[in-house]
Amino acid sequence: MDIIEDYLWVMKHITILVPNGDNNLSSIVGAYKILSRANRYWMELGNKNCYKIELAGSSKKIEFHDGLFSAQPHQRFTNIQSTQLIIIPSLQHNYEKAVHMNQDLIHWIGEQHAKGAEIASICTGAFLLAATGLLTNRHCSTHWAFAATLQNLYPAIKVQPDQLITDENGLYTNGGAYSFLNLLLYLVEKYFDRPTAIYCSKVFQIEMDRTRQSEFILFNGLKTHTDETILQVQAFMETNLRTTLSIEQLATSFSIGRRSLDRRFSKATGHTPLEYLQRLKIEAAKKAFETSRQTIAEVMYDLGYTDIKSFRELFKKITGLSPMEYRKKYNKTALVIS
């Protein structure tokens, strides 16, 4: 019986990848620590069918941050014939270089998925997952700062910059930076159970059931395109936030038909002119709530809104929080006045 149990234990496997290149070490270490603690807790409760959790890479030793840190994977990924879950760490800002350097690994990920493995990407690890082709016509999240880049490189992917976690047919992706901790809790609940996820939440002090990264998004405008007229429209919007602008007026001012403006603006920025203007105004409102004692009504009127209910609904739609909730969370010195 012991031999059978050992065999079953080895057969259940989780692989945390250490790709070549400058990856985010915290996402590798964090994934290993949380999943290992969940595994140990599961065993302590007397459960069987636990997991062998291994780091796998292309090299025996991979350095991080100019050699300040290093990781020594348990084994090469080519030695792993079967695994239940593959975790792709964040690739820092070097996602294009990482994709170029890890073609064999990308191919292996595709092979493992064809055998039934599920795959989870952390932050910009989504670029490596996207390179496999598995995300085509599927939803995907990544760090909000790189969402537009991911969408431009892989237009067939349905990038969801507001979402903290996506879960679609055994493919998991998540937002930026340390939000990967929430993805790990999500995976613990799926691969073990909710009590184990709650236990890890308490041990590592991670908030349970976070689903959005909307409140953390800094909307600075999307200006990497080359449409000079649309760049001028964007600049005009930014300098006239506190006036009531209609899209028809914008089209007339720049001698563009309304339909042509919508089409060109959406192609250049990924947003309609109205959506873009709304996000600019809500970003200005966020800054006002963070730094001033203005009431919600004062901020609203200052940005050209007159219907407080509509303003509150729009603010919550974009940030995931009501104006009052946002102010309480990010401005501890301000008087909370509605």
Index terms:
338 residues, alpha/beta, Rossmann fold, Arc Repressor Mutant, subunit A, 7-stranded mixed sheet, two-stranded antiparallel ribbon, 12% strand, globular, disordered N terminus
Could you spell the SSE succession in H and E letters? Answer: HEHEEEEEHHEHEHEEEHHHHHHHHH
Strand content: 5-15%
| Tally of strands | 11
User: Briefly, what CATH class of the largest domain?
Assistant: Alpha Beta
**Distance between termini?**
66 Å
Counting structural domains, the number is 2
**Ranges with pLDDT <50 over ≥5 residues?**
3-10
CATH H-level superfamily title of the largest domain: Class I glutamine amidotransferase (GATase) domain
Structural class: alpha/beta
Shape: globular
What's the pLDDT, averaged over the residues?
88
Helix content: 40-55%
Which CATH-level-2 architecture of the largest domain? 3-Layer(aba) Sandwich
Kindly report the spatial arrangement of strands forming the biggest sheet.
Answer: 5-2-1-6-7-11-10
- Characterize the largest beta sheet: strand count, sense, and whether it forms a barrel: 7 strands, mixed
CATH topology of the largest domain: Rossmann fold
Task: Report Rg.
Answer: 23 Å
Number of helices: 15
